[in-house]
Amino acid sequence: MTTTFPKNFLWGGATAANQYEGAWNEGGKGPSDSDMLLSGTYDKPRVFTKELKDDGYYPSHLGSDFYHHYKEDIKLLAGMGYKTYRMSIAWSRVFPNGDDATPNQEGLDFYRSVFEECHKYGIEPLVTISHYEMPYHLTDKYNGWGNRLAIDFYVKYAKTLFTEYKDLVHYWLTFNEINIGMMFGGYMSLGMKVKDGSAPFNPKQTDEDIQNNLQGLHHQFVASALAVKVGHEINPDNKIGCMIAGNVNYPLTSNPDDILKAQQTNEMMNYYCGDVQVRGAYPHFAQRFWDEHNVKLNITAEDEAVLKEGVVDYYTFSYYSSNAVTTDESKGEAGGNFTMGVKNPYLKYSEWGWAMDPKGLRWYLNDVYGRYQIPIMVVENGLGARDVVESDGSINDDYRIEYLQGHIEQMKEAIKDGVDLVGYTPWGCIDLVSAGTGQMEKRYGFVYVNRDDNQVGDFSRTPKKSYYWYKKVIASNGADLDN
Ligand code: BG6
């Protein structure tokens, strides 16, 4: 059997602390902004509460309890033959308030043990420095990334990690899905203050929101570039990447208005952030967008120099689904928490309203590789679905296998097209809480976690059918995708 995947292809899986780690107030950890988010459902958005409610369910507080299961979990990942494991560090476990003078040693020790455990099995950690969270104190006192001071707090945090884990971690990502703050507003990825009871995602942005989000995002760009610089100084072997929510927007029709709308949407959603982080400068179309939305950014000459010096070593992105866009307002919007645009009649949709489109992944890989020409990794991909535990305890998730097969096939095509794809880490490799809805029932994993949305279950782990299938995929380096 022959394979298209390169010899050292990084097969693995991905998780994030705020959805998986739990132990939100143990080991000296401070509350993060994600710890203030109640659970929601497909129809009912999650909301932020300024004070924790005694009877409220905050899913990040226990997550999937990785904190107390990490040895067992990493062994399970090793059992699939993982070469890499993408995870994030909870900023508030290292700096509980964000502006502390010194880090929390117990937090540093925890991650050291996690990385050592990975290396025991030959698994290379791939670490996201900030995945949808910051210490809540930084939100409450400073308005998160709305404040330029956040740059200093972040760089100090990143420097601590690069120094502490110099010999244990060599692959880093500065921010998860950095473009989400721009698309959905300030709380979830920019840590900005919102009113009690607001949803963390808001697709309807006013010009004032856009101004605030883009300024906050600019602070993140500068922080990311400074982290890249300092990370390279501490260890020249460090490979530091960006992470973008991969947005594939097709024109609904061949009407030139739809074609232009798709082009403009792809540019703003993908290249606005990608260009700054990969090329070191804002793209040509930014100024017109700013002018049309009355945006005036505070960008200093020093910022511009930093952005140029701190470009990333590789490009990573998440890909779940594609969108169709049109200027015809009568078509209405598609469902789903993160989806935008209108229903694409050629695609099937998941229970949560996300279009399933493996070919969109090939399109995106070619599109971004053509623009940037640096190594690429798909660091999130997968199907959020309800799983059924059969009476014999088995979980037969053929729908998940089918989804992943289709996407891996398209990665193969992209490699044949000439794309330098170096790794693949499907999302939520062990079940975890959904970021969008806060639900546990929207599962992505190869491993089932016994916990439900009524907070019932002992967190025990059971490999699903897809676990054995993915093990075979990795063992054959992607040649054998059969179920
Ligand atoms: C990405 C995020 O947007 O999608 C993850 O980086 C998230 O944190 C994933 O979990 C899937 O989204 P959801 O809403 O199904 O959890």
UniProtKB/TrEMBL annotation:
Domain of life of the native organism: Bacteria
Please give an example of a GO cellular component term from this record: cytosol
Q: What is this protein's name?
A: 6-phospho-beta-glucosidase
For this UniProt record, the keywords arranged alphabetically read as follows:
Glycosidase, Hydrolase
Pfam families, from UniProt? Glyco_hydro_1
> Which biological processes are named by the entry's GO terms?
carbohydrate catabolic process
Which family is this protein grouped under?
Belongs to the glycosyl hydrolase 1 family.
* GO function terms (MF aspect): beta-glucosidase activity
